[in-house]
Each structure stands twice: as structure tokens, then as C-alpha cells.
Amino acid sequence: MHLSRFHARNFRRFSDLTIEDIPETARFVVLAGPNGTGKSSLFDAFMSWEDGKGSIRTFFDKAYHLRVDDPEAKNWLFWKKNLDASFHEPLGERPTKTSWIFYSRTAHRYAGRFEVHSIDRTSTRSGYNGPQSMLDQQSSVEGNFQKIMSRAFSKAFSESSREMKISDWRSEVLGTLQQSVKAMFPELELIDEQDPLETGTFLFRRNGGTAFPYMNLSGGERSAFDLVLDLVAHSAELEDKIILIDEPEVHTNPRIHGELFRQIDRIVPRNSQIWLSTHAVGILRAARDRNREQKASVAFLDFEKDFDLPTILRPTVADRGFWQRSFDVAFSEMASLIAPEKIVLCEGKRPQNGNAVGFDAQVLNLIFSGGRPEVRFISIGSSNDVRTADRSTAAGLIQVALGSELVRLIDRDDHSDEDIIALRNQGIRVLPRRQIESYLFDAEILNAYANSIGRASEAPEILALLNAAISASIGRQNPPDDMKSAIDEFYAALKRDFSITQAGGNASSFARDKLSPLLIPTTSTYQELDEAIFG
Fold this sequence. Notes:
alpha/beta
């Protein structure tokens, strides 16, 4: 089951929210944003919509659910007109009390200890047993222990188990859980060597040591184990469902966040969709990596919005701005210390107070913000400064991680072909064109600019102005490819002849603010620049 659109009016945090354009291919939908922005409210809205359709949870509280009091809101039937959901698949007869769509895990899940010495037959029943709201405490480890043991008991008497060895049977019962525990905590082992009804709990071993019970796990280990246990215990019932997990990282060490994301992906049935509310950079990064491997498999929703106003929320491009906001939430004032995967040192004025103020860096960061969000461009001075720079130079300007790759980039200027070969042998990248302005004022980009301002038919006249400015620059004894020497005259003529206003105080700001956003991956100009720097 995959959600495509949802609308909520006068519900908790939202005055009038529409979420739309969730692709059918989205295995994950990741909600990112600060506390209090409405991520948990959205999960409550999903659950209340299901109440209005099938009375599964039948929980309604004006003080909790309503944003503004409404005299007509007398019971959960009110949500039939306030909440609406659309799915990529047909609903058929769902939802009913035993055929539900949304399965929820709140952020309030913690069980310090438990012991079970008998199995309740009811623990094998399907049907919904999740929370009524995202406020609920959800310590389900004891019930899930019973569910797995009941399943194991039933399995022992099934026809398919007649020829099964005891070791294979144990592996089938606990194998998925054991794999998840080992992946998240390599030093930890979930063991299956003792009678679970005699011990009454799960048993573990750390680094091959003595067995110990569930209650002796750390708080973070219990939290992660409880979550994957719940998904494993209900895996058969989660077929063709939408799973809502509020802050899966709660109580856990940041080291395991990425692996926790991957285990959720592994356990939940393939025909189900997973919605995660998170602040964890490790989970966001794992989601980004999955989306790179399988395009459109993750949709990111940026919740840093003003939901007091009517809002339409669509999947956002996970560009540098999105990641910086996410880092701000996760690390607050430490966000500036987040190290990029790749640092490109280029020409231009050196940064002050951590900002890349050089023109080249400003423009390149804008151009590659969406296509290469893991890269940061830093201006460090002249061409010679770039050529002689090393990791210590970069470390003096920004936080550089041990694994960060360092790239040095200079303009072509008057370098000969022989110079360029020698520079490349030193690990220095050289732009094929004289300077970055040669890309910004390329004919392809100026045509795109003319189209962006609704004057596509006048693009030849704009190009003629540029050619006239280049001719005048050549007349001043500048090289024919020295675009930087021609752009001031061109921009003055463009403003005069085409009545262009509020496009920048000078040619450089015009190029940065109006032209650089037009260098997109589908343009040959972008592709040439990308190949020169990263190819």
C-alpha cells in the first residue's frame, strides 16, 4: 500500500495541510524538521482518518485532536470531512476492524524488563494492536515475545516442519532477529540455546561471554531491539500496509542509526511503505544513499514550514539547503562542523567566518547544490594559492573529516596545453574554459535566461549584445575568450535595451543570482563543468 495524497484541516498542528505528489515508487517517506513542526501530528492524522473510515482505534479528544475548537466535532466521525487520503492502489473493502492500513510505532517505547512463563493463544491473532495516538506508551516487547514463541509452537506442528532439524527450526524462528542484532551490534548475539519459557525472556551474549537476559541490555540496545522485534513479530500482518515510525533513533547511539534504517527496510514486506519521522543524520544519510541506489525510492518531506497557514507539501529535492537545515536540527550550533565528503578548493577571496565569499565558490556551490550536495566549494585565493594548498589549508577554513576528499581547481587562464598536462599530473583540475564566467554567459544559458523571463523570441538580440561586448573587449586588447572583461558592458546594455530591473547590482551578482540556477544537469554547459571538476 502506498499513499499518494493526504489532506488535513483543523487537526492538531495543521490549519489546512495538503501533502501530494508522493510517488508510487517511494518505499520510504522521510519527515525531517525541528520538534513541534507537526511530524507526529501527521501520523496522528493518518490514524484518525482510519478511525473515521473504520473505527479501528475509536480515540477522539477535542483537546488533543482539534487545532481550533469546533462545535460540530462531537466524535471521531468528524474526521470524515476534515481528513482525506488517496492511495496509489485501490482500497477495496478496507479499512475494517481487522483489515487496517496504518501500523504505528510511537517514540515512547521502552520496557526495562519482562518475564513470560506461559504462552497466551490470543497473542497469535492478527488484527490491529498498535497505539491509539502518538502520545501512547508502547512497550510491546513482552507481547511480541509471546507472539514469536506462539508462532514457533504452531510451526512445530505444521506439515512443512515434519522433516526440519531442530537447529533449522530455531534459525527460522529467531533467524531474522539474530541477523538484525548482529548487524546493529556486532559484539552482541541473540542466543537460542535455552528453553524460552524456562528463562521467560530473550537471552544474549556479548563478545562470546556468559549469557544474560534482555533486562541487562543497555537502554539503546533495548530500544533498537524492541523496534526490530515488533516488526519481525508482525511481519506477516504488515503485508500491503503503511508503517509509521516516530523517531526510530530514540535512545540509541548515532553509530547504529544507518544500520537501523537498513534493518527496517530489510524486515518490512516489500509491498508496504514506511514513513519515518527523524532528526538523526545517520538515518537521513542512509535514506539518501538508498535513493541514490534506487531512484525515487525515498521521498523527503521538509517540515520546517508555517502550518498556521494553508500549506501544500510536496517531496523536496534533498539539496545542500535541505541537508544544512537537517544538520541544524540535529546538531544546533555544531552544524557548522559537519564535514562534507568532498572539498573543492578554488580561486577567489578567502572565506571569512566560515562563509565561502569568493565569487567562484558562491557560484559553484549554487550550481552543484542539487546534483552534488555532498560537495563544498571553498575559495582560498589566487591560482598559485590553490596549487600549493593541502589538507591543512582546508582544515584552517572548515572542519575536514579524515575521509573527506580534497580537490584543487583552477581557471584555464593563459595556461598552455603542456601546462595543463603537468598540473593534472600534480592532481590539480583545470577548467577547460578561461574562467567560470565563460560557463555562466554561455549561449545555452543566456537562451535559458531569455526563456525564464518570458522573452525567448528575443534571445538572438541578447546574444548579439554579448557578442558586441566581447568585440569591444577584444578592442581593448583583452583575449577573445576573456568573458570576465566583457560582462560589465554586456549587463549594462542588457538592462538598458531590455528594461531589465532588480536582476542584480552588477554583472557578477546577475550571473550568480539569475544565471547560475539555470546551469542544471540537463544542460551541456553543466555537464561539461561537472566532467571538468569531477570526471
